[in-house]
Predict the structure.
Amino acid sequence: MSFKPPLIRLVGFAALLSCALLAGGASAQTPQFDAWFEAEDVVAVEREVARLHQANADDPVALIATARLGLSHHDDSRMAAGIEAMERCLRRNDADARCHLWLGRCYGRKALDAGMVAGVRYAGRIRMHFERAVALDPESIEARFDLNQFYILAPSIAGGGKAKARENNAAFATLRPALATLLHAQLDIAEERLAEADRRLLGFAGSDDRGVSAVWQGQFESLGFLYFSRKPPRLDDARRVFAAAAERFPRNELFRRGLGRVAQEQGRFDEAARHFEQALAIKAQPGAHYRLAQVAEKLGDTARAITHYEKTLRFPRDMPAAVLRDSSERLRVLQKL
């Protein structure tokens, strides 16, 4: 095993932690706000936030929605507004676990925006707010999960360590033993005990709690794409996990995309196209447009490929530069045919 100096480990931690927290940030709030965020109806969110603020400038639901908007549709102004909202929430009531949780998530985003080295300075604040959220609401699986992400990814010099994650899991298991399996699966995935994580996630009975559902879906996604990224890829296992997840959560487009990616890699292009179309019917997402364009090329459907490469390019802020370059190049080639 190679030794990584503390600075190198911190650099990697800043990038990994912030990305992990972004996934965690898309979690449950209220049914109406959840529906608006799922539909990416920013206008409705902002309208309701303004209405709530008009009645009460310190309304915690509106403040949390502001932070959530800063994470899900962030730019500099929205991110600043989200952090200010959470700081205001905590000035109003420092014992509000939800505001500590969302402020920790906002600082995770700030760590990503600041860059790998500069982002490390947020580690202490992220840990502090997550630990405070757990202390105030020890039965919250979302707070426990996000704190675990910190402990798993952070080196000891930044206050992390997998031993702390195990302690966190053990404490949660005494309070909500039926749900603790999701946190155990989180650590299994981190330590690449994939068979054990697989058993826990597929055997979990489920829950009507929206926070539990958000964590469960995130774990399915992590496991499926971890199987997919193995060298060599474990495509049949990835397909099995994505299929099980899609059956349980038919409105989550990520699982349809996962099934599409597996079918694409296995050369089943008609099936891949169906999955990507189903994903897009749930939510317009540039990654699905890009993959559908690739599959359409394989199927000889030039018009369809052109359409979806063009749609990929409509999301320049949401796609890697390499994908945008490839889409542009493929468009130039196909349009000459």
User: Anything to note?
Assistant: The mean pLDDT is 90. The CA atoms of residues 31 and 329 lie 42 Å apart. The two ends are 52 Å apart (CA to CA).
